[in-house]
Amino acid sequence: MSEDKKNQVSRRQFLNYTLTGVGGFMAAGMLAPMVRFAIDPVLQPEAEGEFVSADIAVEDITTEPQKVTFKVDQVDAWYESTVEKTAFVYKKEDGSIVAFDPTCTHLGCVVGWNTNDDYPQHFYCPCHDGLYTKDGVNVPNTPPTAPLSVYEHKIQNGILYLGKAIPREEA
């Protein structure tokens, strides 16, 4: 056999190479969007430390917990929306400000301050008779498993700004 015939590619080999290359290219084209869909949200930077105005002046905050609502821009993967959240805000006797997330730690219902006549001066969850004291600590022998979460907060130009809610350890 001559040297030229050894280096030549047969018709069958050429078709195998071509079809394998085209198939690989098509598979990569189909997998790339799926891989990006799965990985892209993980690679997005987290928006930590963002504070939003609670629209309440520090001088209007009393020693009695009061409910305030504020709006947060929320991003879930590619869906952006504005969500309304609530907090209970009050001043302690020493003048420091406390802001609680009103979500019950038992089943996620919303608690209210002083809403049950049987339990005055308590946060009360109507779903399963959950109770919290004024400082957000769960009352023993009631359904909640942990104290209410506390919002990070700061004061800027006399206005209260709230950050993310930080869960507290079991009491």
UniProtKB/TrEMBL annotation:
This is Menaquinol-cytochrome c reductase iron-sulfur subunit. PROSITE patterns: RIESKE, TAT. Keywords: 2Fe-2S, Disulfide bond, Iron, Iron-sulfur, Membrane, Metal-binding, Transmembrane, Transmembrane helix. The keyword Membrane applies. The keyword Cell membrane does not apply. Pfam families: Rieske. The chain crosses the membrane at residues 14-35. It comes from Salinibacillus aidingensis. Residues 88-162 form the Rieske domain. SUPFAM superfamilies: ISP domain (SSF50022).
